[in-house]
Protein backbone atom coordinates (compact mmCIF):
# COMPACT_ATOMS: atom_id res chain seq x y z
CA UNK A 1 0.00 0.00 0.00
CA UNK A 2 1.26 3.46 -0.89
CA UNK A 3 2.24 5.89 1.84
CA UNK A 4 -0.74 8.12 1.10
CA UNK A 5 -4.01 6.48 0.14
CA UNK A 6 -7.35 7.82 -1.05
CA UNK A 7 -10.14 6.55 1.17
CA UNK A 8 -13.78 6.98 1.98
CA UNK A 9 -14.45 7.94 5.59
CA UNK A 10 -16.17 4.64 6.26
CA UNK A 11 -13.28 2.63 4.80
CA UNK A 12 -10.80 4.64 6.87
CA UNK A 13 -12.60 3.57 10.04
CA UNK A 14 -12.47 -0.09 9.01
CA UNK A 15 -8.80 -0.05 8.01
CA UNK A 16 -7.83 1.89 11.16
CA UNK A 17 -9.70 -0.62 13.32
CA UNK A 18 -7.76 -3.48 11.73
CA UNK A 19 -4.51 -1.62 12.32
CA UNK A 20 -5.55 -1.05 15.94
CA UNK A 21 -5.69 -4.83 16.35
CA UNK A 22 -9.44 -5.31 15.95
CA UNK A 23 -10.10 -8.79 14.56
CA UNK A 24 -13.76 -9.02 15.53
CA UNK A 25 -16.48 -7.10 13.74
CA UNK A 26 -20.19 -7.70 14.23
CA UNK A 27 -22.71 -5.59 12.37
CA UNK A 28 -25.85 -5.24 10.36
CA UNK A 29 -26.01 -3.15 7.17
CA UNK A 30 -27.55 0.31 7.09
CA UNK A 31 -26.97 3.34 4.88
CA UNK A 32 -24.80 5.46 5.06
CA UNK A 33 -22.21 3.30 6.87
CA UNK A 34 -22.37 0.07 4.86
CA UNK A 35 -18.82 0.45 3.48
CA UNK A 36 -17.48 -0.30 6.97
CA UNK A 37 -19.11 -3.72 6.93
CA UNK A 38 -18.20 -4.27 3.26
CA UNK A 39 -14.54 -3.49 3.94
CA UNK A 40 -14.49 -5.80 6.96
CA UNK A 41 -16.18 -8.57 4.97
CA UNK A 42 -13.45 -8.34 2.37
CA UNK A 43 -10.48 -7.94 4.70
CA UNK A 44 -11.18 -9.97 7.86
CA UNK A 45 -11.12 -13.44 6.25
CA UNK A 46 -7.73 -12.62 4.72
CA UNK A 47 -6.13 -11.74 8.07
CA UNK A 48 -7.66 -14.41 10.29
CA UNK A 49 -10.31 -12.11 11.72
CA UNK A 50 -14.04 -12.49 12.18
CA UNK A 51 -16.61 -10.61 10.13
CA UNK A 52 -20.11 -11.56 11.09
CA UNK A 53 -23.30 -10.06 9.76
CA UNK A 54 -25.72 -10.72 12.59
CA UNK A 55 -29.46 -11.20 12.21
CA UNK A 56 -30.09 -7.77 13.76
CA UNK A 57 -28.47 -4.78 15.43
CA UNK A 58 -29.49 -6.16 18.82
CA UNK A 59 -27.72 -9.43 18.13
CA UNK A 60 -24.60 -7.70 16.87
CA UNK A 61 -24.18 -5.46 19.94
CA UNK A 62 -24.54 -8.49 22.19
CA UNK A 63 -21.86 -10.28 20.16
CA UNK A 64 -19.69 -7.22 20.77
CA UNK A 65 -20.46 -7.52 24.49
CA UNK A 66 -19.41 -11.17 24.49
CA UNK A 67 -16.20 -10.60 22.54
CA UNK A 68 -15.31 -7.60 24.73
CA UNK A 69 -15.79 -9.78 27.82
CA UNK A 70 -13.33 -12.24 26.27
CA UNK A 71 -10.78 -9.41 26.13
CA UNK A 72 -10.40 -8.89 22.38
CA UNK A 73 -10.61 -5.61 20.53
CA UNK A 74 -14.08 -5.57 19.03
CA UNK A 75 -16.34 -3.17 17.21
CA UNK A 76 -19.69 -2.65 15.59
CA UNK A 77 -20.98 0.12 13.36
CA UNK A 78 -24.38 1.39 12.40
CA UNK A 79 -26.35 4.51 11.64
CA UNK A 80 -28.89 6.33 13.77
CA UNK A 81 -31.92 3.96 13.84
CA UNK A 82 -29.53 1.02 14.24
CA UNK A 83 -27.81 2.66 17.21
CA UNK A 84 -31.18 3.03 18.93
CA UNK A 85 -31.58 -0.73 18.61
CA UNK A 86 -28.14 -1.22 20.15
CA UNK A 87 -28.94 0.99 23.16
CA UNK A 88 -29.73 -1.89 25.50
CA UNK A 89 -26.43 -3.58 24.72
CA UNK A 90 -24.53 -0.33 25.20
CA UNK A 91 -25.98 -0.08 28.71
CA UNK A 92 -25.00 -3.70 29.50
CA UNK A 93 -21.47 -3.11 28.20
CA UNK A 94 -21.21 0.01 30.39
CA UNK A 95 -22.62 -1.88 33.38
CA UNK A 96 -20.03 -4.62 32.89
CA UNK A 97 -17.07 -2.23 32.46
CA UNK A 98 -15.77 -3.82 29.27
CA UNK A 99 -14.21 -1.86 26.37
CA UNK A 100 -15.77 -1.62 22.91
CA UNK A 101 -15.78 0.64 19.89
CA UNK A 102 -19.12 1.63 18.39
CA UNK A 103 -19.47 3.74 15.26
CA UNK A 104 -22.51 5.87 14.48
CA UNK A 105 -22.50 7.37 10.97
CA UNK A 106 -25.52 9.57 11.59
CA UNK A 107 -28.46 10.12 9.27
CA UNK A 108 -31.58 12.21 9.64
CA UNK A 109 -34.16 11.27 12.26
CA UNK A 110 -36.19 10.67 14.35
CA UNK A 111 -37.72 7.34 13.43
CA UNK A 112 -36.60 5.81 10.18
CA UNK A 113 -35.86 9.40 9.11
CA UNK A 114 -33.72 9.48 6.00
CA UNK A 115 -30.32 8.53 4.64
CA UNK A 116 -28.81 11.99 4.29
CA UNK A 117 -26.28 13.35 6.84
CA UNK A 118 -27.23 14.58 10.28
CA UNK A 119 -25.90 15.28 13.78
CA UNK A 120 -29.14 14.70 15.60
CA UNK A 121 -27.84 11.86 17.78
CA UNK A 122 -25.76 14.24 19.92
CA UNK A 123 -28.07 13.82 22.91
CA UNK A 124 -28.21 10.04 22.45
CA UNK A 125 -24.41 9.78 22.31
CA UNK A 126 -23.46 12.21 25.07
CA UNK A 127 -26.35 11.88 27.52
CA UNK A 128 -27.00 8.16 27.50
CA UNK A 129 -29.25 6.49 24.98
CA UNK A 130 -29.41 3.34 27.01
CA UNK A 131 -30.67 3.14 30.60
CA UNK A 132 -28.76 3.70 33.82
CA UNK A 133 -25.93 5.96 34.93
CA UNK A 134 -23.21 5.68 32.34
CA UNK A 135 -21.04 7.58 29.92
CA UNK A 136 -19.38 6.86 26.60
CA UNK A 137 -16.32 8.59 25.22
CA UNK A 138 -17.70 10.34 22.13
CA UNK A 139 -15.27 11.25 19.35
CA UNK A 140 -16.38 13.53 16.51
CA UNK A 141 -14.15 13.33 13.40
CA UNK A 142 -14.19 16.20 10.89
CA UNK A 143 -12.07 14.63 8.14
CA UNK A 144 -11.31 11.23 6.67
CA UNK A 145 -7.90 11.39 8.38
CA UNK A 146 -9.64 11.82 11.71
CA UNK A 147 -12.01 8.94 10.96
CA UNK A 148 -8.85 6.80 11.00
CA UNK A 149 -6.93 8.52 13.78
CA UNK A 150 -9.89 8.76 16.16
CA UNK A 151 -10.80 5.12 15.58
CA UNK A 152 -7.37 4.06 16.82
CA UNK A 153 -7.60 6.59 19.64
CA UNK A 154 -11.06 5.27 20.47
CA UNK A 155 -9.79 1.70 20.89
CA UNK A 156 -6.93 2.94 23.09
CA UNK A 157 -9.25 4.98 25.32
CA UNK A 158 -11.82 2.19 25.58
CA UNK A 159 -9.17 -0.24 26.83
CA UNK A 160 -7.63 2.36 29.13
CA UNK A 161 -10.88 3.34 30.87
CA UNK A 162 -12.89 0.12 30.36
CA UNK A 163 -15.79 1.75 28.57
CA UNK A 164 -17.31 2.26 25.15
CA UNK A 165 -15.79 4.73 22.73
CA UNK A 166 -18.23 5.97 20.15
CA UNK A 167 -17.19 7.49 16.84
CA UNK A 168 -19.98 9.99 16.14
CA UNK A 169 -19.62 10.77 12.46
CA UNK A 170 -22.22 11.71 9.87
CA UNK A 171 -23.14 10.47 6.44
CA UNK A 172 -21.04 13.01 4.58
CA UNK A 173 -17.79 12.21 6.38
CA UNK A 174 -18.62 8.52 5.98
CA UNK A 175 -19.07 8.87 2.22
CA UNK A 176 -16.53 11.53 1.26
CA UNK A 177 -13.05 10.73 0.03
CA UNK A 178 -9.75 12.32 1.09
CA UNK A 179 -6.10 11.31 1.00
CA UNK A 180 -4.87 9.99 4.34
CA UNK A 181 -2.03 8.05 5.91
CA UNK A 182 -1.78 5.70 8.84
CA UNK A 183 1.83 6.06 9.86
CA UNK A 184 1.19 8.46 12.79
CA UNK A 185 -1.21 6.05 14.45
CA UNK A 186 -0.10 4.98 17.89
CA UNK A 187 -1.64 1.71 18.96
CA UNK A 188 -1.58 1.19 22.73
CA UNK A 189 -2.13 -2.18 24.35
CA UNK A 190 -3.44 -2.86 27.83
CA UNK A 191 -3.37 -5.95 30.03
CA UNK A 192 -6.84 -7.39 30.60
CA UNK A 193 -6.60 -9.59 33.71
CA UNK A 194 -10.38 -9.40 34.13
CA UNK A 195 -11.10 -11.02 30.73
CA UNK A 196 -12.87 -14.37 30.31
CA UNK A 197 -10.02 -16.25 28.71
CA UNK A 198 -10.36 -19.61 30.45
CA UNK A 199 -8.80 -20.34 33.84
CA UNK A 200 -6.90 -23.41 32.56
CA UNK A 201 -7.26 -24.54 36.18
CA UNK A 202 -4.65 -22.03 37.25
CA UNK A 203 -6.64 -19.07 38.56
CA UNK A 204 -9.96 -18.08 40.04
CA UNK A 205 -12.59 -17.62 37.37
CA UNK A 206 -13.45 -14.10 36.20
CA UNK A 207 -17.00 -12.81 36.06
CA UNK A 208 -18.32 -10.23 33.62
CA UNK A 209 -21.80 -9.17 34.59
CA UNK A 210 -24.06 -6.15 34.99
CA UNK A 211 -26.51 -7.70 37.48
CA UNK A 212 -26.10 -6.93 41.20
CA UNK A 213 -28.37 -8.59 43.72
CA UNK A 214 -27.45 -6.21 46.54
CA UNK A 215 -28.22 -2.50 46.04
CA UNK A 216 -25.28 -1.37 48.16
CA UNK A 217 -22.88 -3.31 45.93
CA UNK A 218 -24.43 -1.79 42.82
CA UNK A 219 -24.11 1.67 44.35
CA UNK A 220 -20.39 1.10 45.04
CA UNK A 221 -19.92 -0.12 41.45
CA UNK A 222 -21.52 3.08 40.14
CA UNK A 223 -19.38 5.24 42.44
CA UNK A 224 -16.24 3.48 41.22
CA UNK A 225 -17.29 3.87 37.60
CA UNK A 226 -17.81 7.58 38.04
CA UNK A 227 -14.36 7.95 39.62
CA UNK A 228 -13.04 6.59 36.33
CA UNK A 229 -15.27 8.93 34.33
CA UNK A 230 -13.81 11.83 36.35
CA UNK A 231 -10.34 10.86 35.14
CA UNK A 232 -11.61 10.86 31.56
CA UNK A 233 -13.05 14.35 32.05
CA UNK A 234 -9.74 15.57 33.46
CA UNK A 235 -7.40 13.92 30.98
CA UNK A 236 -9.08 13.36 27.65
CA UNK A 237 -10.95 16.40 26.29
CA UNK A 238 -9.79 17.23 22.77
CA UNK A 239 -10.62 20.28 20.70
CA UNK A 240 -9.31 22.50 17.94
CA UNK A 241 -9.22 26.29 18.07
CA UNK A 242 -9.32 28.30 14.85
CA UNK A 243 -8.68 32.07 14.77
CA UNK A 244 -9.60 32.38 18.45
CA UNK A 245 -6.65 34.56 19.60
CA UNK A 246 -8.43 37.91 19.20
CA UNK A 247 -11.96 36.59 18.68
CA UNK A 248 -14.96 38.59 19.90
CA UNK A 249 -17.41 35.96 18.75
CA UNK A 250 -17.02 32.21 18.90
CA UNK A 251 -18.56 29.67 16.56
CA UNK A 252 -18.83 26.20 18.09
CA UNK A 253 -19.25 23.31 15.66
CA UNK A 254 -18.13 19.70 15.36
CA UNK A 255 -17.75 17.22 12.51
CA UNK A 256 -19.00 18.22 9.08
CA UNK A 257 -20.66 21.38 10.45
CA UNK A 258 -17.23 22.65 11.55
CA UNK A 259 -15.95 22.48 7.97
CA UNK A 260 -18.81 24.62 6.70
CA UNK A 261 -18.38 26.95 9.71
CA UNK A 262 -14.66 27.37 9.03
CA UNK A 263 -15.39 28.76 5.57
CA UNK A 264 -17.88 31.16 7.15
CA UNK A 265 -15.34 32.27 9.78
CA UNK A 266 -12.81 33.06 7.03
CA UNK A 267 -15.49 34.98 5.09
CA UNK A 268 -16.51 36.94 8.21
CA UNK A 269 -12.87 37.80 8.95
CA UNK A 270 -12.66 39.20 5.42
CA UNK A 271 -15.54 41.51 6.41
CA UNK A 272 -13.60 42.59 9.48
CA UNK A 273 -15.62 40.61 12.04
CA UNK A 274 -13.37 39.18 14.73
CA UNK A 275 -14.72 35.66 14.95
CA UNK A 276 -13.10 32.33 15.74
CA UNK A 277 -14.13 28.73 16.05
CA UNK A 278 -13.88 26.04 18.69
CA UNK A 279 -14.31 22.55 17.33
CA UNK A 280 -14.95 19.94 20.02
CA UNK A 281 -13.25 16.70 18.99
CA UNK A 282 -14.46 14.88 22.10
CA UNK A 283 -18.16 15.61 22.65
CA UNK A 284 -17.93 13.72 25.93
CA UNK A 285 -15.81 14.72 27.71
CA UNK A 286 -16.90 18.16 26.45
CA UNK A 287 -13.98 20.61 26.11
CA UNK A 288 -15.08 22.61 29.14
CA UNK A 289 -11.82 24.51 29.64
CA UNK A 290 -11.79 25.83 26.08
CA UNK A 291 -15.39 27.00 26.32
CA UNK A 292 -14.85 28.60 29.74
CA UNK A 293 -11.80 30.47 28.49
CA UNK A 294 -13.74 31.65 25.42
CA UNK A 295 -16.68 32.78 27.57
CA UNK A 296 -14.30 35.06 29.48
CA UNK A 297 -13.41 37.02 26.37
CA UNK A 298 -16.05 36.72 23.64
CA UNK A 299 -19.37 38.59 23.45
CA UNK A 300 -21.33 35.55 22.37
CA UNK A 301 -21.38 32.08 20.86
CA UNK A 302 -22.91 30.67 17.69
CA UNK A 303 -23.64 26.95 17.73
CA UNK A 304 -23.71 25.42 14.26
CA UNK A 305 -25.37 22.03 14.24
CA UNK A 306 -27.16 19.59 11.93
CA UNK A 307 -30.05 19.16 14.36
CA UNK A 308 -32.66 21.23 16.19
CA UNK A 309 -30.10 22.50 18.72
CA UNK A 310 -28.56 19.86 20.96
CA UNK A 311 -24.92 20.84 21.62
CA UNK A 312 -26.16 24.38 22.29
CA UNK A 313 -27.41 23.11 25.67
CA UNK A 314 -23.90 21.96 26.60
CA UNK A 315 -22.39 25.26 25.48
CA UNK A 316 -24.77 27.04 27.87
CA UNK A 317 -24.24 24.47 30.63
CA UNK A 318 -20.45 24.37 30.53
CA UNK A 319 -20.13 28.18 30.36
CA UNK A 320 -22.74 28.76 33.07
CA UNK A 321 -24.85 30.74 30.58
CA UNK A 322 -22.26 33.51 30.83
CA UNK A 323 -22.78 34.68 27.22
CA UNK A 324 -25.68 34.49 24.78
CA UNK A 325 -25.65 31.54 22.39
CA UNK A 326 -27.26 31.71 18.94
CA UNK A 327 -28.26 28.64 16.98
CA UNK A 328 -27.51 28.21 13.29
CA UNK A 329 -28.92 24.90 12.21
CA UNK A 330 -30.39 22.71 9.50
CA UNK A 331 -31.75 19.22 10.01
CA UNK A 332 -33.38 16.22 8.36
CA UNK A 333 -30.40 15.62 6.08
CA UNK A 334 -29.88 19.27 5.10
CA UNK A 335 -26.62 21.11 5.69
CA UNK A 336 -26.23 24.86 6.32
CA UNK A 337 -24.31 26.70 3.62
CA UNK A 338 -21.29 28.85 4.57
CA UNK A 339 -23.49 31.87 3.69
CA UNK A 340 -26.13 30.86 6.24
CA UNK A 341 -23.44 30.58 8.93
CA UNK A 342 -21.95 33.89 7.84
CA UNK A 343 -25.36 35.53 8.21
CA UNK A 344 -25.64 34.12 11.76
CA UNK A 345 -22.21 35.60 12.57
CA UNK A 346 -23.27 39.00 11.17
CA UNK A 347 -26.41 38.91 13.30
CA UNK A 348 -24.39 38.04 16.41
CA UNK A 349 -22.20 41.05 15.75
CA UNK A 350 -25.35 43.19 15.73
CA UNK A 351 -26.27 41.68 19.07
CA UNK A 352 -29.03 39.46 17.65
CA UNK A 353 -28.86 36.08 19.38
CA UNK B 1 -9.38 9.41 -29.58
CA UNK B 2 -11.95 7.15 -31.19
CA UNK B 3 -15.37 7.20 -29.54
CA UNK B 4 -17.77 4.27 -29.53
CA UNK B 5 -21.52 4.77 -29.60
CA UNK B 6 -21.70 3.52 -25.99
CA UNK B 7 -19.11 4.08 -23.29
CA UNK B 8 -19.51 2.36 -19.95
CA UNK B 9 -17.49 3.30 -16.87
CA UNK B 10 -17.23 0.65 -14.17
CA UNK B 11 -14.74 -0.25 -11.47
CA UNK B 12 -14.07 -0.32 -7.75
CA UNK B 13 -16.28 2.05 -5.75
CA UNK B 14 -14.58 5.39 -5.21
CA UNK B 15 -12.33 4.88 -8.23
CA UNK B 16 -13.70 8.01 -9.94
CA UNK B 17 -16.27 6.61 -12.35
CA UNK B 18 -18.83 9.37 -11.95
CA UNK B 19 -16.36 12.23 -12.35
CA UNK B 20 -14.90 10.65 -15.46
CA UNK B 21 -18.28 9.79 -16.95
CA UNK B 22 -19.52 13.37 -16.49
CA UNK B 23 -16.35 14.91 -17.94
CA UNK B 24 -16.25 12.45 -20.84
CA UNK B 25 -19.89 13.23 -21.65
CA UNK B 26 -19.18 16.96 -21.64
CA UNK B 27 -16.09 16.39 -23.81
CA UNK B 28 -18.16 14.54 -26.44
CA UNK B 29 -20.85 17.22 -26.34
CA UNK B 30 -18.20 19.90 -26.86
CA UNK B 31 -17.17 18.01 -30.00
CA UNK B 32 -20.70 18.64 -31.26
CA UNK B 33 -22.12 15.20 -30.58
CA UNK B 34 -25.56 14.44 -29.20
CA UNK B 35 -24.87 12.88 -25.80
CA UNK B 36 -26.93 11.25 -23.09
CA UNK B 37 -25.52 10.14 -19.73
CA UNK B 38 -27.21 7.53 -17.57
CA UNK B 39 -26.67 7.13 -13.84
CA UNK B 40 -27.00 3.37 -13.37
CA UNK B 41 -25.62 3.42 -9.85
CA UNK B 42 -27.88 1.42 -7.56
CA UNK B 43 -25.46 1.39 -4.63
CA UNK B 44 -24.17 4.85 -3.78
CA UNK B 45 -26.37 7.05 -1.57
CA UNK B 46 -24.40 10.32 -1.98
CA UNK B 47 -22.25 12.15 -4.55
CA UNK B 48 -23.95 11.10 -7.77
CA UNK B 49 -24.12 12.04 -11.43
CA UNK B 50 -27.16 14.19 -10.63
CA UNK B 51 -24.87 16.47 -8.56
CA UNK B 52 -23.44 17.64 -11.92
CA UNK B 53 -26.86 18.45 -13.38
CA UNK B 54 -25.98 22.09 -14.07
CA UNK B 55 -22.64 21.29 -15.77
CA UNK B 56 -24.36 18.67 -17.94
CA UNK B 57 -27.24 20.97 -18.83
CA UNK B 58 -24.85 23.77 -19.77
CA UNK B 59 -23.00 21.41 -22.10
CA UNK B 60 -26.27 20.15 -23.61
CA UNK B 61 -25.90 16.64 -22.25
CA UNK B 62 -29.11 14.83 -21.42
CA UNK B 63 -29.17 13.20 -17.96
CA UNK B 64 -31.10 10.07 -17.10
CA UNK B 65 -31.04 9.58 -13.37
CA UNK B 66 -32.90 7.28 -10.98
CA UNK B 67 -36.01 8.98 -9.67
CA UNK B 68 -34.83 8.70 -6.09
CA UNK B 69 -31.17 9.72 -6.50
CA UNK B 70 -29.98 12.05 -3.72
CA UNK B 71 -33.26 11.69 -1.86
CA UNK B 72 -34.10 9.84 1.32
CA UNK B 73 -35.44 6.86 -0.60
CA UNK B 74 -32.75 4.18 -0.50
CA UNK B 75 -34.30 2.22 -3.35
CA UNK B 76 -32.14 0.40 -5.92
CA UNK B 77 -34.46 1.10 -8.87
CA UNK B 78 -33.59 2.31 -12.37
CA UNK B 79 -35.92 4.37 -14.56
CA UNK B 80 -37.50 2.77 -17.64
CA UNK B 81 -36.04 5.54 -19.81
CA UNK B 82 -32.54 4.15 -19.13
CA UNK B 83 -33.33 1.77 -22.00
CA UNK B 84 -33.00 4.71 -24.37
CA UNK B 85 -29.24 4.64 -23.78
CA UNK B 86 -29.01 1.31 -25.57
CA UNK B 87 -31.95 1.72 -27.95
CA UNK B 88 -31.52 5.26 -29.31
CA UNK B 89 -28.61 4.71 -31.68
CA UNK B 90 -28.60 8.33 -32.85
CA UNK B 91 -27.12 9.43 -29.52
CA UNK B 92 -23.80 8.79 -27.84
CA UNK B 93 -24.60 7.01 -24.59
CA UNK B 94 -22.46 7.23 -21.46
CA UNK B 95 -23.24 4.78 -18.68
CA UNK B 96 -22.08 5.42 -15.11
CA UNK B 97 -22.14 2.01 -13.42
CA UNK B 98 -22.24 1.48 -9.64
CA UNK B 99 -19.11 0.39 -7.81
CA UNK B 100 -17.78 -3.18 -7.56
CA UNK B 101 -19.73 -6.29 -8.53
CA UNK B 102 -22.71 -5.25 -6.39
CA UNK B 103 -23.07 -2.04 -8.39
CA UNK B 104 -22.66 -3.82 -11.72
CA UNK B 105 -25.53 -6.30 -11.37
CA UNK B 106 -27.97 -3.70 -12.68
CA UNK B 107 -26.05 -3.44 -15.94
CA UNK B 108 -26.81 -7.07 -16.74
CA UNK B 109 -30.28 -6.44 -18.16
CA UNK B 110 -28.89 -4.07 -20.83
CA UNK B 111 -26.01 -6.36 -21.81
CA UNK B 112 -27.81 -8.42 -24.53
CA UNK B 113 -28.70 -5.18 -26.39
CA UNK B 114 -25.20 -3.75 -25.89
CA UNK B 115 -23.61 -6.93 -27.26
CA UNK B 116 -26.04 -7.12 -30.18
CA UNK B 117 -25.16 -3.59 -31.28
CA UNK B 118 -21.46 -4.28 -30.70
CA UNK B 119 -20.40 -0.61 -30.69
CA UNK B 120 -19.28 -0.08 -27.14
CA UNK B 121 -16.33 0.47 -24.88
CA UNK B 122 -16.45 -1.06 -21.39
CA UNK B 123 -13.92 0.90 -19.36
CA UNK B 124 -12.36 -0.19 -16.08
CA UNK B 125 -11.53 2.88 -13.98
CA UNK B 126 -8.39 2.22 -11.94
CA UNK B 127 -6.87 4.18 -9.08
CA UNK B 128 -3.88 2.47 -7.47
CA UNK B 129 -4.16 4.76 -4.41
CA UNK B 130 -7.39 3.06 -3.35
CA UNK B 131 -6.36 0.48 -0.72
CA UNK B 132 -8.62 -2.39 -1.86
CA UNK B 133 -7.18 -2.13 -5.37
CA UNK B 134 -3.67 -1.27 -4.17
CA UNK B 135 -2.02 -3.93 -6.37
CA UNK B 136 -2.70 -4.81 -10.04
CA UNK B 137 -3.68 -8.31 -8.88
CA UNK B 138 -6.35 -6.90 -6.55
CA UNK B 139 -7.64 -4.64 -9.33
CA UNK B 140 -7.84 -7.64 -11.65
CA UNK B 141 -9.88 -9.49 -9.01
CA UNK B 142 -12.39 -6.61 -8.86
CA UNK B 143 -12.44 -6.52 -12.68
CA UNK B 144 -13.34 -10.22 -12.87
CA UNK B 145 -16.00 -9.86 -10.15
CA UNK B 146 -17.66 -7.03 -12.08
CA UNK B 147 -17.55 -8.98 -15.36
CA UNK B 148 -19.12 -11.99 -13.63
CA UNK B 149 -21.85 -9.81 -12.12
CA UNK B 150 -22.93 -8.01 -15.31
CA UNK B 151 -21.95 -10.52 -17.99
CA UNK B 152 -19.94 -8.02 -20.01
CA UNK B 153 -16.15 -8.12 -20.41
CA UNK B 154 -14.02 -5.00 -20.08
CA UNK B 155 -12.39 -3.67 -23.25
CA UNK B 156 -10.23 -0.82 -21.87
CA UNK B 157 -8.58 0.65 -18.79
CA UNK B 158 -8.56 4.26 -17.69
CA UNK B 159 -5.68 5.34 -15.47
CA UNK B 160 -7.30 7.55 -12.84
CA UNK B 161 -4.45 7.45 -10.31
CA UNK B 162 -5.12 10.28 -7.88
CA UNK B 163 -4.92 11.40 -4.26
CA UNK B 164 -7.77 13.89 -4.44
CA UNK B 165 -6.60 17.46 -3.76
CA UNK B 166 -3.04 16.25 -3.12
CA UNK B 167 -2.61 14.92 -6.66
CA UNK B 168 0.52 16.08 -8.47
CA UNK B 169 1.85 15.07 -11.90
CA UNK B 170 4.20 12.75 -10.01
CA UNK B 171 1.20 11.03 -8.37
CA UNK B 172 -0.07 10.08 -11.84
CA UNK B 173 3.31 9.28 -13.38
CA UNK B 174 4.37 6.98 -10.55
CA UNK B 175 1.31 4.83 -11.28
CA UNK B 176 2.67 3.87 -14.69
CA UNK B 177 4.21 0.55 -13.63
CA UNK B 178 1.00 -0.46 -11.84
CA UNK B 179 -1.14 0.41 -14.88
CA UNK B 180 1.17 -1.38 -17.30
CA UNK B 181 1.08 -4.48 -15.12
CA UNK B 182 -2.73 -4.32 -14.94
CA UNK B 183 -2.81 -3.92 -18.71
CA UNK B 184 -0.53 -6.96 -19.10
CA UNK B 185 -2.48 -9.13 -16.65
CA UNK B 186 -5.85 -8.28 -18.23
CA UNK B 187 -4.69 -8.01 -21.83
CA UNK B 188 -6.50 -4.67 -22.13
CA UNK B 189 -5.16 -1.37 -23.49
CA UNK B 190 -4.95 1.84 -21.47
CA UNK B 191 -7.60 3.94 -23.19
CA UNK B 192 -6.66 7.20 -21.47
CA UNK B 193 -5.15 8.86 -18.43
CA UNK B 194 -7.24 11.26 -16.38
CA UNK B 195 -6.36 14.13 -14.08
CA UNK B 196 -7.83 17.30 -12.65
CA UNK B 197 -7.32 20.08 -15.22
CA UNK B 198 -4.33 21.82 -13.55
CA UNK B 199 -2.49 18.50 -13.18
CA UNK B 200 -3.57 17.38 -16.67
CA UNK B 201 -1.98 20.53 -18.08
CA UNK B 202 1.37 19.57 -16.53
CA UNK B 203 1.11 16.01 -17.86
CA UNK B 204 1.04 17.18 -21.47
CA UNK B 205 3.84 15.57 -23.42
CA UNK B 206 4.45 13.02 -20.67
CA UNK B 207 1.33 10.89 -21.08
CA UNK B 208 -1.12 10.52 -23.97
CA UNK B 209 -3.98 10.84 -24.21
CA UNK B 210 -4.91 12.75 -21.04
CA UNK B 211 -8.54 13.57 -20.31
CA UNK B 212 -8.71 16.79 -18.33
CA UNK B 213 -11.23 16.64 -15.49
CA UNK B 214 -13.18 19.53 -14.05
CA UNK B 215 -14.06 18.53 -10.49
CA UNK B 216 -16.97 19.81 -8.47
CA UNK B 217 -16.40 22.11 -5.55
CA UNK B 218 -17.98 20.72 -2.42
CA UNK B 219 -19.55 22.66 0.42
CA UNK B 220 -17.27 20.86 2.88
CA UNK B 221 -13.98 21.71 1.14
CA UNK B 222 -11.82 23.42 3.76
CA UNK B 223 -10.32 26.90 3.24
CA UNK B 224 -6.89 25.31 3.62
CA UNK B 225 -7.63 22.41 1.30
CA UNK B 226 -5.37 23.29 -1.59
CA UNK B 227 -3.14 20.81 -3.43
CA UNK B 228 -0.22 19.78 -1.21
CA UNK B 229 -1.89 20.61 2.10
CA UNK B 230 -2.60 17.85 4.56
CA UNK B 231 -6.05 17.60 6.10
CA UNK B 232 -6.36 18.88 9.66
CA UNK B 233 -4.98 16.60 12.27
CA UNK B 234 -2.44 17.64 14.88
Could you characterize what this model shows?
The complex is a heterodimer of chains A (353) and B (234). In chain A, the strands form three sheets. A seven-stranded mixed beta sheet of chain A has the order 3-2-4-5-7-6-12, sandwiched between helices. Chain A has a five-stranded mixed beta sheet with strand order 9-11-10-13-14, sandwiched between helices. In chain A, helix 6 links the parallel strand 6 and strand 7. The mean pLDDT of chain A is 96. Helices cover 42% and strands 19% of the residues of chain A. Chain B is α/β, with parallel strands linked by helices and 234 residues long. Chain B has one domain: Rossmann fold. In chain B, 32% of the residues lie in helices and 18% in strands. In chain B, strand 2, helix 2 and strand 3 form a beta-alpha-beta unit. In chain B, helix 6 crosses helix 8. Chains A and B meet through strand 1, helix 2, helix 6, helix 7 and strand 8 of A and loops of B.
Q: Helical region count of chain A?
A: 12
Q: How are the strands of the biggest sheet of chain A laid out side by side?
A: 3-2-4-5-7-6-12
CATH homology-level superfamily of the largest domain in chain A: Thiamin diphosphate (ThDP)-binding fold, Pyr/PP domains
- Helicity level of chain B: 25-40%
User: How confident overall, as mean pLDDT of chain A?
Assistant: 96
Amino acid sequence: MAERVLMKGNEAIAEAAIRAGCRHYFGYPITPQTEIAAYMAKKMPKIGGVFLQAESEIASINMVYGAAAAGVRVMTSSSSPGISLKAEGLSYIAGSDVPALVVNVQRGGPGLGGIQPSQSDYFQATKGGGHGDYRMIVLAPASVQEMASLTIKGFNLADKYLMTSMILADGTIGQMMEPISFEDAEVETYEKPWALTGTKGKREHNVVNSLYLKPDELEVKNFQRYERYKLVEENEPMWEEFMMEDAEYCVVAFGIASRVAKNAVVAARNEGIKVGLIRPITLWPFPKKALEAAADKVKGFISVELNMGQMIEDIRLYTGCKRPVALCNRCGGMIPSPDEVLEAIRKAQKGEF
Amino acid sequence: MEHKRLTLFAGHYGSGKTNIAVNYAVMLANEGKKVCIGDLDIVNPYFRTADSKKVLEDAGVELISPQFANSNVDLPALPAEAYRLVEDKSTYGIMDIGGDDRGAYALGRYVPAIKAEGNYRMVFVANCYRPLTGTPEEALEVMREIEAACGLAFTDIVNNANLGPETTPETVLSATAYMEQLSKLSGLPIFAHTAESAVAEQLKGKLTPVISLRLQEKYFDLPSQKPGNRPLWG
